[in-house]
Amino acid sequence: MCETADPEALLLRRADREMIRQALAELPVEFREVIVLREFEQLSYKEIAKVAEIPVGTVMSRLARGRQQLQQCLAARLGEEPNSGL
Questions:
Q1: What pTM was estimated for this model as a whole?
Q2: Are 63 and 52 a contacting pair, CB within 8 Å?
Q3: What is the CATH number of the domain that holds 34?
Q4: Is 85 helix (H, G, I), strand (E, B) or coil?
Q5: Containing domain of residue 50, as a range?
Q6: Cβ–Cβ < 8 Å for 34, 55
Q7: 20 to 30 A from 16, CA-CA: which of 7, 24, 40, 51?
Q8: Is the residue at 37 inside a domain?
């Protein structure tokens, strides 16, 4: 698929990626690790548990808490109220 080289769209995507990267960097390492392994590396919960040497239940808990903290950080950067339903 060929994307248009719209300079404004490219700039916005770059700014979004940078904001997400910075927000991820602010997370505690135990949350950042499971989020990166799940969302970027596409590992299963079982695979993450093996890599991180933690129980699957802990993976699930850390993902939920990490996603919540990431959402709050991004909402704060955007000056919005975080969505408490997620």
A1: 0.78
A2: no
A3: 1.10.10.10
A4: coil
A5: 30-79
A6: no
A7: 51
A8: yes
